[in-house]
Automatic annotation (TrEMBL):
SMART domains: APPLE. Belongs to the glycosyl hydrolase 7 (cellulase C) family. It comes from Chytriomyces confervae. One of its GO terms (biological process) is proteolysis. This is Glucanase. GO terms for molecular function: cellulose 1,4-beta-cellobiosidase activity. InterPro entries: Apple (IPR000177), ConA-like_dom_sf (IPR013320), Glyco_hydro_7 (IPR001722), Glyco_hydro_7_sf (IPR037019), Pan_app (IPR003609). GO terms for cellular component: extracellular region. It is an enzyme of class 3 (hydrolase). Residues 183-207 have a biased composition (Polar residues). The keyword Lyase does not apply. The keyword Hydrolase applies. Residues 181-212 are annotated as: Disordered. Keywords: Carbohydrate metabolism, Cellulose degradation, Disulfide bond, Glycosidase, Hydrolase, Polysaccharide degradation, Repeat, Signal.
Length: 481
């Protein structure tokens, strides 16, 4: 029973919670509506739990945020994907291992029909159901598995300690789940699973907010680990300089001219990120950012202590531009330096190694284009490493735009497209491994390199005119999907 290493994404990444419930992002339930309430996403699960008859729920950001409470028996396999309105769904009581008919092996392993485990995926292989258990047993790190009939038969190998009570019943794709010998339950099947997962969607895992730096505003982001558990980090946005901006504790912000740094929850250092073998995802709205203006989300190797002197790839430290854009053009760029940390002299790639010129004049991104810059869109930037390892050298960066079910990949920055004069993409990975600070900025000037100026028909003029807000929301850093 149970998996070659073609990493096929699972449908919905469930996060289990104490007491047997679970929640996930980007999902919904069909029917069963009981009532609704105007509450935030992190209150929806508890609202359901205290509402008579509510067994499961969906929260969306429609109408300012609505929790749809639902009733009736459900299993995780009945949820459907929903990639709009910031949807979150969950159920208050798991259809748990107690309803699964387990087959116990003499060596301590066990398996059952019609069941699955949440998260923990480490690899998969195209094998028959009868081979899945033995495939897991011979795969380093595999402790439990699920086999499904998807793609002709796929064995999903998983890592971490589990108990029977953590499995959930599902009839989807003829699922078979089990655990191999040597992974006997760490708790009895009658005990609720012990977990550090959020007890409801979006609940913070970190400690209480620290003392913010002067002028800083609460601005949480989401980080997910390799068990597909997501955490809401109590971070702050601290202005370096700015005209009026709106920063919300919901994780939404809009800004005019200015620059902001993301500060760690303790309030004393800039939050540090290593993007190698990960992806960063966010929503952006540049409909009011004209030609001659630049709205940017990027990372810098500036010193991490709050108040440290700013630096970037135009000066003395590495810079990873995830997004520079306006209504007519977008670009992502590496600015690597020959040495780590802050450097002296002309040791950084000022021009950068970029992917974006194929979007400036094409019909893919722009006003009323395939990706319509008059509306918000989502950007996912993936940082691939050698061996798909956190410790592997960075080898390739790709970026994907998404809007209304449409996708567009802007390009691939890699060893073949990026000069080795400054160390290339692997050197950018070295800088990222040391930790980098997330920065949001908005500035204006000569932007022909970004939007083409008068030469681009998408530009009403080569100058920006009156500044309009750039908007960012739902920033997430997570394992590559």
């Amino acid at each position: 029973m149970a998996p070659s290493l073609n990493m096929i994404p699972r449908d919905i990444a469930w996060n289990q919670v104490s007491g047997g419930g679970a929640w996930a992002l980007n999902c919904d339930w069909v029917g069963g509506d009981l009532s609704n309430a105007k509450v935030s996403g992190d209150q929806c699960g508890s609202k359901c739990a205290t509402t008579t008859g509510c067994t499961h729920f969906t929260w969306t950001n429609a109408n300012g945020g609505t929790c749809w409470m639902k009733t009736g028996p459900v299993t995780a396999s009945q949820a459907i994907a929903k990639n709009n309105d910031g949807a979150v769904c969950g159920y208050s009581k798991s259809d748990s291992g107690s309803s699964i008919n387990w087959n116990n092996a003499a060596d301590g392993g066990y398996w059952a029909l019609n069941c699955d485990w949440t998260g923990g995926d480490i690899a998969n292989a195209q094998v028959s159901g009868e081979q899945c258990g033995s495939k897991c047993a011979t795969t380093s790190g595999c402790t439990h598995f699920t086999w499904t009939s998807a793609s002709g038969g796929t064995c999903w190998m998983k890592g971490g300690n589990v108990s029977k009570g953590q499995a959930f019943a599902t009839t989807k794709d003829s699922a078979v789940c089990g655990a191999v010998s040597g992974t006997a339950p760490t708790q009895t099947s009658n005990d609720p699973p012990k977990t550090t997962d959020p007890s409801s969607p979006g609940q913070t895992i970190t400690s209480a907010w620290g003392a913010p730096p002067a002028g800083a505003t609460r601005f949480p982001i989401i980080e997910c680990d390799r068990t597909k558990t997501c955490y809401k980090r109590n971070t702050f946005l601290s202005p370096a300089w700015n005209f009026p901006a709106t920063v919300q504790e919901s994780g939404d912000m809009s800004m005019g001219l200015g620059r902001f740094y993301l500060v760690d929850p303790n309030g004393s250092i800039y939050k540090q990120f290593n993007l190698n073998n990960r992806q960063i995802v966010f929503n952006v709205d540049v409909s009011g950012v004209k030609c001659g203006q630049n709205s940017a989300l990027y990372f810098s190797s500036m010193a991490p202590n709050v108040g440290s002197e700013y630096c970037d790839g135009q000066g003395s430290c590495m810079e990873m531009d995830i997004f520079e854009g306006n209504i007519a053009g977008t670009q992502f760029t590496t600015h690597e330096c020959r040495s780590r940390g802050q450097v002296a002299g002309n040791q950084c790639n000022h021009d950068g190694c970029s992917a974006g010129s194929n979007t400036k004049y094409s019909d893919k991104v722009g006003p009323n284009s395939y990706i319509n810059s008059l509306k918000p869109f989502k950007i996912t930037t993936k940082f691939y490493t050698e061996g798909n390892s956190d410790n592997g050298a960075l080898k390739s960066i790709v970026q994907i735009f998404e809007q209304d079910g449409k996708y567009f990949q802007t390009g691939d920055v890699n060893g073949g497209s990026c000069t080795t004069q400054w160390g290339g993409v692997p050197q950018m990975g070295v800088g990222q491994a040391d930790g980098m600070t997330l920065i949001l900025s908005f500035w204006e000037g000569s932007m022909d390199w970004l939007d083409g100026g008068f030469g681009n028909g998408k530009c009403n003029s080569a100058i920006g005119g009156q500044s309009q807000a750039a908007k960012y929301s739902q920033i997430r850093v997570e394992p590559i999907a």
